[in-house]
User: What shape does this take?
Amino acid sequence: MLAGATGLVGGAILRGLLADGSVAAVHALGRRPPPLTDPRLTAHVVDFAALPPLATVDEVYLALGTTLKAAGSHAAFRAVDFDANLAVARAALAAGACCAGLVSAMGAHARSVFFYNRVKGELEDVLAMLPFEGLVIARPSLLLGDRTTLGQPERPLERYAMVATRAVAPFMPANYRPIAAADVARALLARVRTARRRVVLLSGELQPPR
Assistant: This one.
């Protein structure tokens, strides 16, 4: 089960799942279907506030996310980043999922002074209390990827930050270097299936070996 398949990291997770011959079926939950088709892919257009019973699954990937600007308010942001992800996690457990992967953010902490990081941290803590056998949390730094092809609004601050850090990235601490969305997806796909506890992967651990 995958929530957020039309997003930057979620789309990369979807492509990775469909490239894996051992995956029998993928159920993608969203407000619109993903732009990919595959005999094993079932797209479910849902209201995350009222999810229906879902098909049996083994694992779930939570990649729903927005920005305060796009959401328009703190409450609307929390409805996506916290409420919707938690609803999918609970529905996945009811559908048989034993392990989960979460796309969080660098600096996530339930007591952060920053609202964005605080919501991410609160979600991490609540998911850790659910009875998953394994929970893998990815905390990427600045994400690299083409948002415009996904129909997402451009994020000027991301673009400026990528340009500003390009020359110095090799000298930056690994956890603060910009990271490709595909690398975040790859790390989650490699760890979720075999996870048997709560694992937090900082951005440097999500980077591929050099």
Observations:
- The beta strands are 2-3, 26-30, 41-45, 59-62, 99-103, 134-139, 143-144, 179-180, 198-202.
- The chain has seven helices and nine strands.
